[in-house]
Amino acid sequence: MSTQKPPLNVLLAGPRGFCAGVDRAIKTVEEALKRHGAPVYVRHEIVHNRFVVESLERQGAVFVEELAEIPDDGQPVVFSAHGVPKSVPAEAQGRRMLYIDATCPLVSKVHREAERHHHRGRHLLLIGHGGHPEVVGTLGQLPPGAATLIEDVEAARRVQPPPGVELAYTTQTTLSVDDTAEIVAVLRARFPEIAMPAKEDICYATTNRQAAVKAIAARSELVIVVGAPNSSNSVRLREVAERAGCPRAIMVQRGRDLDPAIVAGMATIGVTAGASAPEVLVEEVLAKLRERFAITTEEVTVTVEDVTFRLPRPMAAE
Hints:
Layout: E1 7-14, H1 20-36, E2 40-43, H2 50-59, E3 61-64, E4 77-79, H3 87-94, E5 99-101, H4 105-119, E6 123-127, H5 133-139, E7 147-150, H6 153-158, E8 167-171, H7 177-190, H8 204-217, E9 223-226, H9 232-243, E10 249-252, E11 268-273, H10 279-290, E12 294-301
Parallel strand pairs: 1-11, 1-12, 2-3, 2-4, 4-5, 6-7, 6-8, 9-10, 9-11
Helix pairs in contact: 4-5, 8-9
């Protein structure tokens, strides 16, 4: 009886995994721990990945949902990469807390954009997913009623903004590029004078990872997305893979979650990772596949990223 493992070709999408904003947020927590010692509090998951969160917890980070959970012990609190409503730093200042804002600079750009539109008297149509921390943070830059959330094409067709008011739109940074283009097309057809972002709000990392998935999807019988179910950009990658011609796409958080039997009989599959998933988790998935298959890997790179962000001011090199 032959014990030879069946061959399997694995297409690795590039870019994949960590983006500059995620890398900056994680390093911010690590640097705060170095400077201040444990505990360092973090409001909300610093990024949407349990592996990352648990790794930081082992180093002394304590994750909370609200500032009310943090004792007045003088230790710092870090705000997550997704951004926070204005009420959160205001609360921290009121309690004289040392806070470090690790909001991704590209999310901060959307916040400032929303404020500019509001100051110019425009009503904002925010394209995004209700309840996502980034959307909560962006809406929280403006007074109640100053923005309307648009979650899909149907909402874009139905929305009735305040009469006689100029309009503008902006978007969550981690949306499907194609879905967003559809929504924008509807809004621009309905409201030809609507003010647009000076530059695309969907971030470079989201755009690049979706392009890379499209490059491997049509050649793959299955695409495995390494990412968390509450990670918007990871969920979008799974959807994009299926729409781009892959018969099936699944998401796993790490190697131990993958049943290699799902790949039985396949010749070529694709693997990618969301922007909050470290490369070590991709390596775990490949190791799990090697248990059953003789795999060969092929990097399919659509662009090379060289973006870096400096740490927030309190953590920047002195």
